[in-house]
Protein 1
Amino acid sequence: MSKTKYIFVTGGVTSSLGKGIVAASLGKLIQARGYSVTIQKFDPYINIDPGTLNPYEHGECYVTDDGAETDLDLGHYERFLSIPTSQANNVTTGRIYDNVIQRERAGDFLGKTVQVIPHITDEIKDNFYKLGETGNYDFVITEIGGCVGDIESLPFIESVRQAKLELGPSNVVSIHLTLIPYLKASGELKTKPTQHSVKELLESGIQPDVLVCRCERHLNMDIRKKLALFCNVPVTNVIESIDAETIYDVPILMRKEKLDERVLAKLKLKYKKEPKIEDWKEFLGRLKSPTEEIDIGLIGKYVELKDSYKSIAESFIHAGAVNECKVNVHWIHAEDITKENVGKLLKGLEGVLVAPGFGERGIEGKIEAVRYARENGIPFFGICLGLQCAVIEYARNVLKMKGANSTEMAPKTRYPVIDLMEDQKTVVNYGGTMRLGAYDCTVKRGTKAFATYGQAKIRERHRHRYEFNNKYLEEFENSGFIASGINPETGLVEIMEIKDHPWFVGTQYHPELRSTVLSPHPLFVKFIKAALLQKSAIEVI
Ligand code: GLN
């Protein structure tokens, strides 16, 4: 049917086994053999996209260049493969049903009863094939969210069954990721949950070609043979996925287990012995043997769930490795910070990052953290709401605009230094209506931002409704807080920095969404450099 090869990754036994990381690692290995690869995620929930979900529910919402609000696994795909994803890479049950229902209303199925099979499954399959049909990819890896056996996953699993049939055995591989728990009391690894999970898959008509077994102890040959026998796969296709020190080890671990070779062999593709992953190994080398160490405070309000700031945490890892520096991120709850304790809470940090966010909760703590960093010359990085807090702080404490605020927090403030964007004023729906996706930005020469990017034309991803109020720009710039990046079409302020400070930069966009292992984001790299300088300055004193 098509030249593109399809790999489906399902999960069993429990969620959170790292399907996204396994998919991204396999993608990386295949890409490193010279193939073009993309990875897509199908999520079984009813929301049209995760944009309206609270970060506590679902972790970070990852935004693509084309402005899609997507699952955080897409962040892993980009960080591993260094190629952008798009709306087509993340599809939910909600979107599938929405598409089908819209077509039903338009009369596309006139006279017919619209049903899960074939209408919903056809729509799912159309979406499975969409990226492959562009002709841009040799491989499309599809991760199915949730677990086999979940009621809401059923239409997706059924669609995988149909797709396997349509595509033919030499064009498709199905991988099942399961858990092999270790029972401490008896000192044994147990295969039973995996047997049950594969049985469940078989009942749905899918025989997995490869088993990837998440485990905390190595699988010996006896266990592998047992799994092979009960689950009906060749023993060579039982792949161990042992707990790793870092997610970036997983491609190397999968390589050792020959996951990529098993997949290529199943597809009857010839392969050379080794994929080209020297640069990846180099990154790992730097990551694991740092010569320096710094402490950075991440001020946020969803800090209980680290996945809420996934891309920021990963960006620190990428940028830390470039600098051969271990970055200890201290997660500090914005609501815990007060004027009185800020000095104590942030003491000893070599850098402060104020995180993105929505709503009033924690905002005053964030503003205090900004003040502390500004007044004490501590490198500061504000992202989205973080920049907005920096603007509010500067307005209140330097420009003496009492009660200055964002109209998001205080609609009636006398000094609306952050205000709703003009085209947001008529928006009524919440889903997908922010300023989303990649926009051009012109960086001013002679600024820290320019020294960081080394070029004037950049493009970065956004997710916000509010912006710097240009009515106040002159006043800010006259006192040394300058706009160093501007949207060339709309004049919106995208980057601001304080001239007279070691490193104080805020961005209205989200640089963390573009940092990858092999191409760390320059702003994070520079922020860490500034923090390192800060550390040596403190040590000199
Ligand atoms: N709440 C702010 C806005 O909508 C900031 C958003 C963010 O930090 N992503 O503009």
Protein 2
Amino acid sequence: MTTDIDGFAGRLKRRENGGMISGWVGIPDAMLVNHLAQEDFDAVVLDMQHGMWDMETAASGIAYVRLAGKPAVARIPVGDFAAASRLLDAGASAIIAPMINSADDARALVKATKYPPLGERSWGPSLALNHFGLAAEDYLQSANSLTVTIAMVETRTALDAIDEILAVDGIDGVFVGPSDLSIALSNGARLAPNSAAIDQALATVLTRCRAHGKAICAFGSDGDRAGQYLKLGVDLVIAGTETAQLRTGARAAIQTARNVIQS
Ligand code: 3PY
Ligand code: MG
């Protein structure tokens, strides 16, 4: 196994190359993620919250991301902490948990994703042992630092509790969800992920993450937004979903062809 895979947690904290850029995939197809993972992404997220992955397709997806030499990250459905354990068992390098609104939510997440003394993750990392290339004893000793537990901050309640969430031992970082946060901050009036209100909230979260020595990640709807986040100091960003990238690429190819006809 390459250190790229095993060193994901360390790379996230060191901010090599000005921060990481991850793919984001909702279509539950292992071959699709393998194609995307060939690009210069630092990781690929399988989105089980709004994407259509189930446990079986996610386990294959993780394997196909790893086949491309990249770490696989999984976003679980809201509150499905049992899935978080299973995805780590399947070889995920990181778990992103949506709607973590309190220290209690954060502790429940850690309980499922970290072995004692931090949590109560149950033993059974059969595929993870294969993917990380580790013997059982070595995986047990390193899993808590080798895998990353990320709490999503995407409500007003979570913003208010940011210090308590970040103070939970075993939470390695937070992930700002700008769409839900914009809906929450406007009391349901607006979907405005790229608004000034989100920029302001992100700046606060970034300051608090630095104070706690923890990572900050954020969802960018495209490369431009992702670049802005990186410039601000965000450690890991998304540069749009796979469907957006697919359609943008298709649109550009069609337009290029039409331009050639006219030239
Ligand atoms: C949000 O912006 O709310 C997210 O969850 C990112 O996918
Ligand atoms: Mg969200």
Protein 3
Amino acid sequence: MPLINNKHVAKVIAIDGPSGSGKSTIAKELANALNVLYIDTGAMFRALAYIADEQKIILKEGAALNEFLNSLKIDYGVSESVLIRINGLDLSEKIREHHVSGLASVISQLPSVRKYLLDFQRSLALDKICVMEGRDIGTVVFPDSFCKFFITASVDIRAERRLKQLRENGDDKITLTQIAEDVRLRDETDMNRSVAPLKKADDAMLLDTSALSMKDIIHMLGNDVKFRAAHLGFNL
Ligand code: DC
């Protein structure tokens, strides 16, 4: 990690925010526009939750959970079509199923799971600039990242976006009211958990996407990243 003015600076563009805020689309498009690696940490919590559920692991701290974590081998960003694999199993599609969201929210509250993924996430960000998306990237995983954005949007807008996504994936049962309730509940859990809660870093730029176009957002964030990178002498 480069040392600038006696401070370590991580070459990470940290993008945090609640689900449905548009942060995943922003993170992906920004990474694309800048031609840098995109790292989706939510996918890691989802994949762990999926496997734990399959293996009927009880989601509480203890020897069984540690044994489970030690038995895992995660591969992230294997290829264009394989985002995440655990113990050789491609979970890229399965992690998007609706029930996995709730399971991921529960598993993400466990300190040993967070510690396990924290180490993994840090190992992925090497010498090159990357975009890392999650809930605690700017506060816990890389508090020294050179660029931080906290993305948000109103609950109603976020529920509508989620509904559209689920309909596209073939789920035609769940209603907008149910989703809005899920969104509220998940926010509450994510913001109030004792370890690494969802929180804007003091030095992150806050961006409400409720009324902004994706094109404008990418343009604005891209310029900000380029400016900071040039100032620090980072190649983009
Ligand atoms: O962003 P997402 O919906 O795919 O995240 C799934 C769950 O994982 C969500 O409940 C929050 C949790 N998560 C987290 O606690 N920390 C992260 N860095 C990323 C996700």
Protein 4
Amino acid sequence: MIGIFDSGYGGLSVLRQIRNLMPEYDYLYLGDNARAPYGSRSFDVVYEYTLQAVEALFARGCQLVILACNTASAKALRSIQQNDLGRLGAERRVLGVIRPTVEAIGELTQTRHVGILATQGTVSSRSYEMELAKLYPDVVVTAQACPMWVPLVEYCEFDSPGADYFVKKRIDAVLRTDPQIDTLVLACTHYPLLMSKILRYTPPGVRIVPQGELIAASLKDYLRRHPEMDERLEKNGKAQFLTTEDPQKFYDSATIFIPHTNVSVQRIQL
Ligand code: DGL
């Protein structure tokens, strides 16, 4: 199976795009809803939680785990790859979402001014700035933390009138900091759920880039380049779901993120 991990529901926006592109594979999704959000947690804590999640997915047969969470990708991916993967099974892989997003950004911006909307954890890690500097050193990056956006999604308030205030506030702030921005990256997998409000407060001429499709395309390309991994993945078109919180609560929210999907949920402890 392909494991998809997020602190909560956000990774479902990535799973949805991955399944659209590659419906034949089997997926096991894990949301650490009991401990979400991760965005304001320290490096050590995000690393510890993410490692536990990866171990749980490996233990249930996943060969490949996607950290469909920017905060976990920023704070834990490299440490897991360097410190833990050997012990956990050298032939297994853990991939993140930052690198594939950055690879796409350079092709999207005309003005070469890009805004990154993300959690405080991702912004403080400066991961996007570092990756962009490697691939596209001419791109000017402004990162903006959007602290209330994940709770709005986790608590199903993304459509409520109250959400408008927080969405407008952060978009205004990033565009005030750099008015030349023509590309705003939703560098948190929860944010696509706020899309209608994000579009409402973004001026014309500024492109909004969600990550799901970019991650899906990058995963497909990865599997094409790594047939030895592709062969080990089961292909029955199934998706199963794990949560560290109440399964009924997960079911109710998951069906909003991924409508028309048969969601069977089990609770686990990490
Ligand atoms: N969805 C996660 C991300 O992409 C983070 C949400 C959280 O703060 O837990 O960064």
